């Protein structure tokens, strides 16, 4: 346990610079979205007043107010989120391959540590999850900061107040950031964690059997997707004809996913102990 | 004692180790000799479970290799095993964190011996100094066995001399050493046992002292006989 914590801390420190750089990038670019949307809106409003020769009160009657949702629809807002998702996806591979590739083959050291090799797997998994949750948490804080800036730039009477929860429900990608209930959390983040574990297993298959391992990895990945989707598929008309209720399917999915998770971890442990190559 | 019992290792269809048997004793320097690709590095990797073997048994002091073995055997590969952005002192801290057998006073002694500066970044070191850092990481562990893979390859003459000096110093003491090398000249006078490999098998295994006394042959003489003719 002590070695796992040490390794996880070590792995996290290795990625912390990248993580903080991503956080900085998100905040700066999203603030750019705030400034862009607010200045465009304000200039449109001023233009409207000028063109129509209206007083401010008259213009307000016919001019639509703006909410923070407009900022969230700007590419400068959701672009960084997608870049972060891409960075995490890339890091899931990088976190393993960088130890093998390059002049300094750190994998020798990792595999020769006098600790359970599975701790390496767990520490890398923990790092990816901490980075993901770290970015999600930071995004939520960033939205609060950006909304405060937005509120400063748009006068009250031109602004439409939207509750935070409503805001987060506006777009599918923000709904994933902040699930509205525990079921959604399990679906979004459970699937995410399972996917990372399965990808790690595929990587270890490749690192153990190289070219053959790529084929094995693809087959394994497909088998896991098939396993996880199987309860939904067999509940369709052509087989069980919706015999199970949606809530029952949900819990069957939870069990099947746990089986897939455990299986992947057992295989990864075996690969790390007996099959992996430097 | 490190024992190889009928070890077979294949990469696909290629047989790299074909029933390898040999032993390396504590307190002795055993040298694995052979041209490139005969399986010297594979033997080292197999001892440390860095590559799986298809059959046979590898034992360290009569026991199979487990995580505990890594406190007993240190492997010094010919590639740098620490992160390039680490300073030498950070690499030492890392070792201290994970190995109970890490001996910091010996590490400091090695720093002086090799004229290394602990504030230096590993990525900024020359090839010779990187090899020295590698040696430091292995030799500063209080282990019974040290495996060294080509410690002299691509290194200047003075560094080679310095590394060869390690073998006669108390830094090796009564530990068991398995070393692979092409540059047999550097250490011929130091090795106790030679293991000649060819095509994944042990061609000849002999005690260098006995060979000198009984047959008047040096390791290089035996190598000439075996590989040339």
TrEMBL record, chain A:
Chain segments annotated as transmembrane: 75-97, 118-145, 186-205, 214-234, 249-267
Keyword terms of this UniProt record: Membrane, Transmembrane, Transmembrane helix
Protein name according to UniProt: Uncharacterized protein
Organism: Filobacillus milosensis
UniProtKB/TrEMBL annotation, chain B:
SMART domains attached to this UniProt entry: AAA
Record-annotated ABC transporter domain positions: 2-224
Molecular function terms from GO: ATP binding; ATP hydrolysis activity
InterPro entries: AAA+_ATPase, ABC_transporter-like_ATP-bd, ABC_Transporter_VariousFunc, P-loop_NTPase
Keywords: ATP-binding, Nucleotide-binding, Transport
SUPFAM superfamilies xrefs: P-loop containing nucleoside triphosphate hydrolases
Domain of life: Bacteria
PANTHER family: ABC TRANSPORTER ATP-BINDING PROTEIN ALBC-RELATED
Designated name of the protein: ABC transporter ATP-binding protein
Species of origin: Filobacillus milosensis
């Amino acid at each position: 346990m002590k070695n796992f914590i040490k390794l996880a801390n070590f792995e996290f420190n290795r990625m912390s610079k990248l993580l903080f750089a991503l956080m900085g990038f998100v905040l700066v670019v999203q603030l750019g979205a705030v400034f862009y949307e607010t200045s465009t809106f304000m200039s449109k409003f001023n233009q409207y007043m000028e063109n129509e020769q209206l007083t401010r009160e008259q213009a307000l009657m016919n001019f639509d107010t703006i909410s923070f949702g407009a900022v969230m629809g700007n590419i400068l807002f959701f672009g960084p989120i997608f870049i972060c998702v891409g960075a995490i996806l890339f890091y899931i591979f990088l976190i393993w391959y960088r130890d093998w590739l390059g002049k300094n083959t750190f994998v020798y050291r990792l595999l020769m540590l006098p600790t359970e090799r599975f701790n390496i797997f767990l520490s890398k998994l923990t790092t990816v999850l901490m980075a993901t949750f770290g970015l999600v948490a930071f995004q939520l804080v960033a939205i609060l900061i950006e909304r405060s800036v937005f509120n400063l730039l748009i006068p009250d009477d031109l602004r439409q107040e939207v509750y935070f929860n409503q805001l987060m429900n506006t777009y599918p990608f923000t709904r994933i950031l902040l699930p509205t209930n525990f079921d959604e959390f399990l679906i979004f983040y459970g699937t995410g964690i399972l996917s990372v574990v399965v990808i790690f297993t595929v990587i270890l298959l490749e690192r153990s059997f190289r070219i053959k391992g790529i084929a094995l990895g693809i087959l394994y990945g497909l088998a896991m997707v098939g396993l996880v989707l199987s309860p939904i598929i067999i509940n369709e008309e052509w087989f069980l004809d919706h015999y199970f209720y949606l809530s029952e399917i949900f819990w069957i999915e939870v069990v099947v996913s746990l089986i897939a998770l455990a299986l992947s971890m057992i295989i990864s442990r075996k690969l790390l102990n007996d099959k992996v190559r430097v | 004692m490190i024992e190889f019992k009928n070890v077979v290792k294949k990469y696909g269809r290629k047989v790299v180790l074909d029933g390898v048997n040999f032993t390396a004793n504590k307190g002795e320097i055993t040298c694995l000799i052979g041209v490139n690709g005969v399986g010297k590095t594979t033997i080292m990797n197999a001892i440390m479970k860095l590559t799986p073997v298809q059959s046979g048994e590898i034992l360290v002091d009569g026991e199979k290799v487990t995580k505990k073995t890594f406190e007993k055997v240190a492997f010094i590969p010919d590639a740098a095993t620490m992160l390039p952005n680490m300073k030498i002192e950070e690499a030492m801290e890392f070792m201290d964190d994970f190995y109970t057998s890490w001996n910091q006073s010996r590490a400091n002694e090695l720093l002086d011996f090799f004229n290394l500066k602990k504030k230096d970044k590993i990525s900024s070191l020359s090839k010779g100094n990187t090899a020295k850092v590698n040696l430091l990481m292995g030799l500063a562990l209080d282990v019974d066995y040290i495996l060294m893979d080509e410690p002299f390859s691509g290194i200047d003459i003075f560094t080679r001399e310095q590394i060869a000096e390690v073998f006669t110093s108390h830094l090796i003491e009564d530990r068991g050493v398995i070393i692979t090398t092409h540059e047999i000249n550097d250490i011929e006078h130091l090795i106790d046992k030679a293991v000649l490999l060819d095509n994944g098998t042990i061609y000849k295994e002999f005690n260098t002292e006995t060979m000198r006394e009984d047959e008047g042959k040096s390791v290089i003489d035996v190598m000439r006989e075996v590989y040339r003719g």
